[in-house]
Specification:
Blueprint lengths: L2 E5 L6 H13 L8 E5 L5 H11 L4 E4 L16 H4 L5 E4 L2 H7 L3 H13 L3 E6 L4 H10 L8 E4 L13 H15 L5 E4 L7 H5 L6 E4 L6 H9 L3
Parallel strand pairs: 1-2, 1-8, 2-3, 3-4, 4-5, 5-6, 6-7, 7-8
Length: 229
């Protein structure tokens, strides 16, 4: 299976989400062989689910973060159990959170553990400076990594317009596959556009892409979907 995952980050209110999904429902959608996922803010998850079902859209919904805690007295935290009724997928370890909230590889591994305990699919964001460390932390918890998705996102490429060369991304993807000793899907993310996405999809070790900016507009996202045909 190949994946196109859109990360809306801290964009789109519920009203804006209605507009996006309505426009998407009216677009000419390619018959692509892929799983298309929109990772929406917590506030939008229930409504995105409702509209996807109501409009019969070829989309799935994902969360952008999860607590490392189980249910309890943790004010403001959103647990994996809470998410389990809203989504099947969840981003963890995004570089935004590592940078802005000082998330560590150990904390990310705990979040992955919580998601797997609830039969959710973690989308583990990773970059070369902490790639080995992150995989060690995951393996130390003896987690079934075959049920995870890895997204290689070089920080230098995210939002910069300077996408990493697909051949280099392929090398890193091969390393992830080797270190995890698994056949888990591996994606590339970082300034992916409709103009360059083909180069990543052509690589043996890459199973799709994770996009930010080009998931915020329907025309760009539909063009990305068309690349999977």
């Amino acid at each position: 299976m190949r994946y196109l995952i859109g990360n809306w980050k801290s964009y789109n209110t519920i009203s804006q989400t209605h507009i996006w999904l309505s426009e998407f429902s009216q677009a000419h959608l390619p018959k692509a062989n892929l799983t298309a996922i929109i990772c929406a803010p917590f506030t939008n998850l229930a409504e995105v689910n409702r509209l996807i079902n109501q409009l019969n859209l070829p989309l799935q919904v994902g969360a952008q973060n999860v607590s490392a805690e189980t249910e309890g007295k943790h004010t403001g935290e959103v647990t994996a159990r809470m998410l389990s009724e809203l989504t099947r997928y969840c981003l963890v370890g995004h570089s935004d959170r590592r940078r802005e909230f000082s998330e560590t590889s150990a904390l990310v591994a705990q979040k992955v553990k919580r998601l797997l305990e609830e039969s959710l699919v973690p989308i583990i964001c990773i970059d070369q400076p902490y790639l080995d460390e992150q995989i060690r932390e995951l393996l130390a918890l003896q987690l079934p990594l075959t049920t995870c998705i890895f997204a290689y996102e070089p920080v230098s490429a995210i939002g910069s317009g300077r996408a990493q060369d697909a051949s280099q991304a392929e090398i890193v993807a091969g390393k992830i596959s080797f270190l995890t000793d698994s056949q888990c899907p591996i994606l590339y993310g970082g300034s992916v556009t409709p103009e360059n996405v083909d180069s990543y999809l052509a690589k043996q070790h890459l199973d799709g892409v994770l996009v930010g900016t080009d998931s915020l507009t329907v025309p760009a996202f539909v063009k990305l979907m068309a690349a999977f045909v």
